[in-house]
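Possible race condition, two jobs.
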Amino acid sequence: MPIKFFAKGRKEAEPNSTFYLLKYRPNPQMTPTTFWTAVENNRNHFGNAYVWIQTEFNKMKYGGDYKIKNLWVMPSNDVTVIVDDKGIFGGKGKLYYWYTDKYSGESYFFPEYEVMHFKTSTTFDGITGEPTVEMINAGVAAFHENSCDYVIGIGGGSALDSAKAIAAMSALGGNIADYMGRDIDGEFPHMVLIPTTAGTGSEATKFTIITDTEKNIKMLLRGDKLLPDLAVLDYSYTISSPKSVTAATGMDALTHAIESYTSRKANPITDTFALSALKRIFANLPIAYSDPGNEYAREQMLIAAYEAGVCINNASVTIVHGMSRPIGALFHVPHGISNAMLDIKCLGFAAQGAPGKFAAAARAVGASDSGDDATAARDFLTALGNLCREVEIPTLMEYGIDREKFFSVMDKMADDALASGSPANTIREVTKQDILDIYASLWD
């Protein structure tokens, strides 16, 4: 499925039409025959001059009342063209072009329709894992060296977090590590984020997580300007995710949902999104994991990841994420996996401060019909443990982490967890000793 962009004020459309759009003004007297001949003859030589666009379309003639409602945009070579009458990207241009319906054979001429176009694009593929300060610096350098104007991040959470950081630092300059504990603000290049996993929900949040390799910490960086101008959700991009990625990102979304639901910052709106996400994840993650081509499960998981992203953007995360980031930074465990390793112990701790919330979650996902909150809360944790086993979440030992080394850095990890601020959002008060005890219990 291609990417869908909406343009304001357009009428309903007929499906399955295709046309070429030229980046220059063709002769207004050009006939459809000569237009298509020029396109076919020059496609290879002038690859950057054309872009395929599939569009839902109302038949429209010069001077008529019908307008394009929305576009399905597909890139050709290294060019993308987006109809943008709201101007959210800026830099609108006006073109004359011919449209030919490949199905009906009818051709139409359109006068000066406003479009914005990218003349060239640069691909930066230097995000080779969870992003580090060095990777972001390299991305910023590529942005400036190629005189880029916009940032389109496509990939998993690492790619999307990196896109945010690169866009911000391309304008701010300096070292992103200097923004630890500060709001990131400024006028940044416009951003489009397209997740290919379900997911971190990064496309819906004002956060980015970057590893400071000098201090061996994962920095939680924030700022309202880190929200993208446009997020594109297309579940077909997630279908090729390996099972391990499906499990890790799915558990990350689940952790976002339950932590935001039980956060001190929770509110009725985030609660609604969180419970919706939890229902989708418990029902569909096992299917997406065991049957990767199941489109319905993939779609539901992508929606859930987005819902959970909205939740943490407003209600934040709690003890799991606070304790997870140090494990990822020091032992290079993928973020979603380190969350899942901690979920049972951390959420069991938190549940003692909010049994009613955990009980409500259990009932919502069908894990309990008990009227006793304490019992239902335990049922939630049991269902969560079953889900972790179903998607084969490893223990620290199974992952290959050395026990002695882990215990030797536990004090640092506890300090880093508290410094992140996330544990303070937990409905139950969290001390450093609590964190140390939970870390140690992971080896029981």
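Job #2 (started ~2 s after job #1):
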Amino acid sequence: MTAFKGQLDDTTLTIRLTPFAELCAEQAELVWRMRTHPAVAEWMTNPGPIPWEAHLAFMARQADDLANLNLLATDEAGAAGVVALHNRSGSHDSAELGIYRNPFRTERGLGRRLLRALHDFAFSDPSLTTITLRVHRDNAPACHLYRSEGYAEAGADADPRFVKMALQRNVYEARRTRYGE
């Protein structure tokens, strides 16, 4: 488990990241309940239902999957959401972001805290230079969040429903310096 402190609205809050391979059965079930919640599922690349048995098989493969790292994010109030680095290249210079907030929590700023915790974790690897993502064009809050955190559009996606975006290490580092983080 890795802990990261994030600064938001003058309050220091800690997000802890735990690899899926280390989750207990109760946490694995919570991940499934969050992922299958309609408020989360509608924005996924594969938005269909996920049978419990398929989820358990997915969780069982986590320890052996070196290209994808899925993490449960928790804070003082419990599960905050899930963050992930997918399709990590062999040289680990790029990875694709995956993220969803806990749909059972309603406080503002939770998505930003998750995103910043993932950035801190990901860019602690000195070989990582770029985080990419795909986001639904119609998901205006997510598009705004990514732009406000330094992501820029990165070419056309093969699926016109999505926008491709990328965050470069130098942009991340400049933002951290500017905000005194």
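The longest strand covers residues 11-19.
Logs attached separately.
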